Amino acid sequence: MRPHHFVVPLILSLVLLRRTVTSRCPQLDRMRHSGDNPTSMARATQNPIQAVRGMNDILPSDIGRWRWLEGTFRTAFERAGFHEVRTPIVEPTNLFVRAVGETTDVVEKEMYAFERHDEGLTIRPEGTAGAARAYIEHSIYAKEPISRWYYIGPMFRGERPAKGRYRQFYQAGAEIFGDHGPGCDAELIDLLHGVLTALGLVNVDVIINSLGGAETRARFKEELVKYLEPHRERLSTDSQRRLASNPLRILDSKAPQDREISAGAPTLHEFLTAEDQAHFNELRQMLDRLGTPYRVDPHLVRGLDYYTRTLFEVKAAADKLGAGDTVLGGGRYDGLVEDLGGPKTPAIGFAAGLERLLIATESNQASDPLDVYIAALGNAAQREGLVLARDLRAAGFSCEVDTRGTSIKSQLRRSEGLAARAAIILGDAELAEKVYAVKNLAAHTQSKVAAVDVVAHLSQTLRAAT
Ligand code: ATP
Ligand code: MG
What we know:
Layout: H1 4-22, H2 26-33, H3 38-43, H4 60-79, E1 83-84, E2 90-92, H5 93-99, H6 105-110, E3 112-116, E4 119-123, H7 128-137, H8 140-143, E5 147-156, E6 168-177, H9 182-198, E7 205-210, H10 214-228, H11 237-245, H12 256-263, H13 274-290, E8 295-296, E9 308-315, H14 318-321, E10 326-332, H15 336-339, E11 347-353, H16 354-361, E12 372-376, H17 379-394, E13 399-401, H18 408-417, E14 422-426, H19 428-433, E15 435-440, E16 445-450, H20 454-465
Parallel strand pairs: 1-5, 7-8, 12-13, 12-14
Antiparallel strand pairs: 2-4, 3-4, 5-6, 6-11, 7-9, 9-10, 10-11, 14-15, 15-16
Helix pairs in contact: 4-9, 9-13
Bound molecules: adenosine-5'-triphosphate and magnesium ion.
Residues 105, 303 line the site of magnesium ion (MG).
């Protein structure tokens, strides 16, 4: 037998084996074929992997500001009787197509949609659709007459990244299901104004409008198309297409030529029914009574299809945010729950962009300093250090113990770097005497404290200092 008689089948079977193994993971297959072998990639330190463009890390050094912002929202909304809801990050694509609207920017251009085992899935671009789906799926309407929910979490849109515009961004939002009156609209707008004030934002621009109900919108749509039709040639390509599919969207277009034409368009206000009008007037009177600043802009429309009647938006800090200065938006969506297969249920909600709020506020919230740092020299000291750390944590202190086994100098340098309030030094002498050296780093004092008294000693000195 000549060598190639067995070499060729052997190579062939190896290739086939490799195929069957790799085909279980198409991503890995693709990486291998493109030369990006995962093992060699991990080794290629000159060319480290970077985050997806428009998706940002929030490092521990930034977390203080995030917690402060999220905490301000939580406190304000929980005080107003809202309860947190957490819905999945991934939902059926159809949910967003039906809820947000097939011809909106979000659904047409921005969704991270994919197929998995013949199921169309989307990484959520917004929170209202998922909340409404959960409200219906769990028959919440049958359990309570009104539901007040809030959420905080990441949203995903395939947009062109810019300052204040990302592909993964965070929203804090709320939904009220089961209340049709303008009272909760006014309350929500006032609550939000209060949150923005608590965040230190001044001169926020609260803009409100009414889109009317379904009847109003149908009549308005007809008149709008009549007005736009003669300008068709000058409209942007997107807007020309939307003239047939969704003419209202044209009023929300950012293209300069569309804006110019829209400026002369009829406004929804001229078409409001007496009931729509009364709802809007009552909202205004309530805001007046609350003293919440606002202005009415009859041209305000927003990017999602589900809105009815009350619509609002808040702009802030244009000096820092530029054109993307809308920090939050919301409105009524009285038809959405029914459109998604639930019973007729009035509802209103909003969503605020947390990155934009952080840019707008530029607050400098340091993270909490460490209470106690334990410097331990040698294994025996580390053993006692670990026990002491556990006791201190149980007593309510934050405490870190140095288990690196480095010099006392580098351990104390670390305690300064952490801005610890106290440091405890544990070495052979301290263990033998059962007396520890306790440094109060803020007061620059040092004392010797019996091991059994350390927790009590720190309870006195540190608690007294705060
Ligand atoms: P814009 O007109 O700026 O694109 P939008 O109408 O798409 O905003 P909504 O869907 O109403 O925004 O979302 C509410 C808020 O979420 C916005 O006011 C904004 O603060 C924030 N937001 C929306 N998209 C992004 C994004 N890509 N990156 C960061 N924040 C965003
Ligand atoms: Mg957008």
